[in-house]
Amino acid sequence: MKHFEYAPGMSATTPHAAPTKLELLELLAAIGTAQWRDFASAAARHGLTSTQAKVLAQLNGPLPMRGLAALLVCDASNVTGIVDRLEARELVRREPAPADRRVKNVVATEAGREVMRRVREEMQATHGALDTLDDAESATLYALLERLRPTLEKDI
User: Fold this and answer.
1) Sign of the torsion formed by the C-alpha atoms of 120, 71, 25 and 9
2) What backbone torsions phi and psi does residue 108 show, to the nearest 5 degrees?
3) Which of 2, 64, 71, 134 has the fewest CB atoms below 10 angstroms from its CB?
4) Which residues pair with 93 in a beta bridge?
5) Which pLDDT tens digit goes with each residue over 81-138?
6) Across residues 15-22, what is the average pLDDT?
7) Which of 33, 35, 17 is nearest to 25 (CA)?
8) Distance (Å, rounded) from C-alpha 111 to C-alpha 117?
9) CA distance 140 to 138
10) Helices and strands: H and E segment counts in the chain
11) Residue 17: helix, strand or coil by DSSP?
12) DSSP string, 27-84
């Protein structure tokens, strides 16, 4: 596999060999795996499994149990156990959906939001990697990832 390195002075207009889609996919997978490992390690320091932390990370507002199952790509019965354990620690609560009281939404508590804030803050490997970028590189990376995100999340 070819490795493409950023060199000072390189820009989108600087001619260089473009990586193949396979090379881009492999690089994204490697970065995603490293970021996930860092996330799981930080979550474990707070007594959370990586899946429990992933659930908390998804809760930017009320989310139905079925919606959590879809995001986790698992059966709704698996989500029940995960939410039970988070609820026992008072990191989430269940509440009836306003439109259909039979549907239970999961909501992060203040304690749950605080734990996720600390987990993200403690992801030292990820922070260290991002610290190698200057402001312009960070802005470029953000814009590129923001551009990819809607396409990748459209079926979620």
Assistant:
1) negative
2) -70, 140
3) 2
4) 107
5) 999 999 999 999 999 988 888 889 999 999 999 999 999 999 999 999 999 999 999 9
6) 85
7) 33
8) 10
9) 5
10) 7, 3
11) coil
12) HHHHHHHHHHHHHHHHHHTTT--HHHHHHHHH-SS-EEHHHHHHHHTS-HHHHHHHHH
**CB burial string 45-68: b at 16+ within 10 A, e below:** ebebeebbbbbbbbbeebbbbebb
pLDDT at 147 over 70: yes
Amino acid at 13: T
Using left for φ > 0, alpha for ψ between -120 and 50, and beta otherwise, residue 19 falls in beta
Judge whether 72 and 84 are in contact, CB under 8 Å.
Answer: no
pTM: 0.80
Structural tokens at position 74: 């698992």
Distance separating alpha carbons of residues 28 and 154, to the nearest angstrom: 18
pLDDT reported for residue 71: 87
CA 69 to chain centre: 15
Q: How many CB atoms lie within 10 A of CB 127?
A: 12
Q: Which of 56, 26, 37, 2 is nearest to 129 (CA)?
A: 37
Average pLDDT score, the chain = 89
Mode of pairing for the β-strands spanning 63-64 and 92-96: unpaired
Residue 17's pLDDT band (cuts 50, 70, 90)? confident
